[in-house]
Design brief:
The chain is mainly alpha-helical.
Amino acid sequence: MSVPNFTGNFRHGRQINLARGSAASHRSSHSVLKDASAARAKREEVRKRDKAAVKIQSFVRGRREVAQTRLQMRELFIECATEQRPIDPNEAVSMFLFFYGKCGSLDQDVKLVATLEEMLGSDATRLRPNLAGKLAKLMLSCVEATASSALTESYLRLLSSVQANVDLSVILEAYSSLISHLSDADTITKVVDNVFLAIHTSLSAIECDRSRVLRLYIEHILSTPKLFVSLAGSERSTRLEQTFDFRHEIIQTLASTTFVSLASVRSVAEGSFDSDMRLTWLLANVLYIWKNRSGSAPSLTYAIQIMQAVSNLLLSISSLGVTKLAKALTSRSKPESSFDPFILSSIEFLEERVVLDMAISPFRQSLDVTLDDYFSTCRFFVGLGRIWPGKTSKIRYFLYLNPEHTLPLFFKIIKSSTAFNVIVAANDLAAPGQPLWSPVTAIDEVHDRKIQEWEILSLFLDICWHWMIMTDDDEFFDDKQYGLSQDDVRLLGSFLKMLVFLIICNSDPSTSLQRGRSLKLANGNDNDVPLYHTSTLTLNTIKHDAVGIMRQLYYRDARRHFLGEDYWLLMDKMDVMTFSQLAVADAEKARQYQDLNSDAGDDAQESSSSEDEDGDKKMTSASAAARYLRRRMMTSPRLELLQKIPFVLSFALRVDVLDESLEMDRHRSGLDRDYELRVRRYTAEIRRGHMLEDAFAQLNHLRGELKSLIGITFYNEFGVEAGIDGGGITKEFLSGVVLEGFDPSRGLFLANSEHMLYPNPQATSPEQLQKLEFLGRIIGKAVYQGILVEVIFAQFFLSKWQQVQGNSQFGSGFRNTFDDLWSLDAELYKGLINLKNFKGDVESVFGLNFTIVNANSQTVELIKNGANVAVTNANRLQYIHAVADYKLNKELYLQTMAFLSGMNDLLSPSWLMMFGAHEMQTLVGGAALPIDIDDWKRNTLLGGFLQNDDTIKYFWEVINELDDADTRAVLKFVTSVSRAPLQGFASLNPAFTIREAGLQEDRLPTASTCVNMLKLPRYRSKSVLKSKLLFAVTAGAGFDLS
């Protein structure tokens, strides 16, 4: 094989084998093919080398020729300059660009920059734009590369002479990019001089479009990174600030136009900075100018324009950019922050009191402010909340207190929104083709009114939640206090319940809760889709906040009854006939899915996110899809209604759901057959007077198995009591255990001033906590078997039954607040109210600090170092809520969790969440309403009597004459419970029955509580019947009477 050379002769001679009979003739065909293939590969390699040699030769010769041409062009350029030969400026620039681009590093070539400047002179204006642009780009790269001040001046002088021929947007964009890469302050100053010249030249043009120049100045120059960092305090900085009128031109432009188009911002920095960073620098530079020029308080019009400008910028930054900025603002001390300290210090100006006072000035001058002005103020605070999520509470508290009309005016904006008016005014809402919630990707989405309305609604809900928590009942109903009027509260509740209802329905586009109509807020599956790309706001965010406000409003209505009996109901929006069955079926599907996927779900959750270099969590599409499917399978719209806002369904419907759920649970546990045949898997021997001890000793170990029917045998001082348990002995057993276990003298429970029960905070021993857990199971068993027991719990304690263990998520669980304190300690509640309303100096008069003495006579600090923090007028609200939180939540935590743990062994937390505190009391002990005697009479069966018999007439006459206590005593004598059944006497099973017990008038009436039967002799006079009945009722005997 010949070796390639550069002589041009690289052919090789052919090699021919003329030998005969060689070993090659005897080789196999496989070997021959293999050798041929190898030879072919070698020849191909040779050809490739030959071609490469040709290309190398061509390249080397070409470079030599180009270099020679450049030298010739350089000599021609020097000759023209030396001899001052007339030359067209375009030709001169073309020659300069041809040779200077490669040879400009030579000192003699650098000097030719000044030569070109002299050659152009006044003819620079005749340059073609494309040549001027290329020359400008070359000079800018030279400025960035050189470290010589003299050369920089030379480059910039030439640049200034040709920049008029370049489009202003191009040259300003180039200057912006150059400044962001420079670090020398002197060089930046000289570049800024060229910027001034470019802008002045454009403004001096005959056909000048001043608005376009202003816009380009804002987009390219004011968004330049580190612009004022290098020029701070210099004359150039002042000139930059005064290039355009800040108030009447810059702020008005930012407030009224969509200059922050992503297309324009992304192209500015040539990929060096992303669009979010450019917008952030623009915001920082604008705030820097505003801060330096702020003197006296701005006028109302100016203040509104500033808020519009700032909010436009804040809301234009993407959600990811906002997250990074918020993280940097929260932890400024960390050096790894990607944000320049100048940005952070400029933006922190927004949280200064002078800015916040200016921002709420429209609320203070309500007579001179339009609805659009209020709208601008709301958007400003929406923007603040986005970059300071950790200070959201501080912002909404500020808005709540400053001034008093903030909340009503925010609500005025909400009431003017499209979504509010459509939702409140109509039942048949948005058609699927025109949803109220429609995530968009338009460039001008920041200025879309409907989008802004949703953002403001989110902020309003935050403020309203703060108001609901901070306001006690007395203030809430005082029209002179801050907040919403009663009419506005009523309107807000109507809006929120419909809004939440629609969001829940929207989570499953295949579900239509209303027969014949499809109520949808959006196109379906939009609940977790952000409203637009620069926002994290979703329908689920709105739902989360709205549910919290609705529940607080519902609890307040339950205490004060000011909204009306049927105010919360949305029964006309769903198919009531099938709701309970479908809801229980949904719950069973969710349970089965959870059982099958619990392990896989945990693994998916652990791998659902990964840390990137910035520490941000990036969710994979696979894990997100898995979580979405899991959520869809775990929660249907019906279940979510029952868990989030159950009060929009009637109590009777929810009781039906509970009954269906209990029936399903018995079937799943294999107990349905036992209940039907009255099969008792476990037995217990119970002594009267020792019911709690015997039941605890014999049944506590059963835990969830207590759902089964229990065979109870009673013992009194005479031995075994007679009686056949058709359910009545179990009722007697549960009633007896409740009577003993909840007796305050036993130390497990205490009674408030209204004789309502709650756990004793001193019950902290292991045995006491176990008994509290057992009593929770006893109450759970009573509800599980539909047996009413004679016990009344405090409202705050009943409210805790709605809390899912291990889940205190806002809107899902329940945490008692200050207004619940009255049902624990009415005197303490009144005392704290007096402290809150005290007009004098709290510190000197009361002498309190942030400590409290608990039930065990121990002093507990309510906050860190609370013993050294005095209660003052400024912090008394914090003290009041801290005291309430400790008494209601912290001090009773162990006892409450023990009780609920036992109850949840029999009753699913999801069942308890369907009922409010007063409804839960009804489930346990029956309706607290006066007994409806007419309903009782209508639903009573007779055995051996006729309706017109004198004895029956006497009985009902006596019942009508008895006071409420004696009437309830009679009812308890027969049914073992003094309260009427949950849904009236028609629901009592077995039905209340009066049976003839003979003609002997000396006999007492007896009862079979197992079948709710009163055995009544035929008394001939009403007086005898009354005396005998009351004696039997008050005798207190057991089953021997029957």
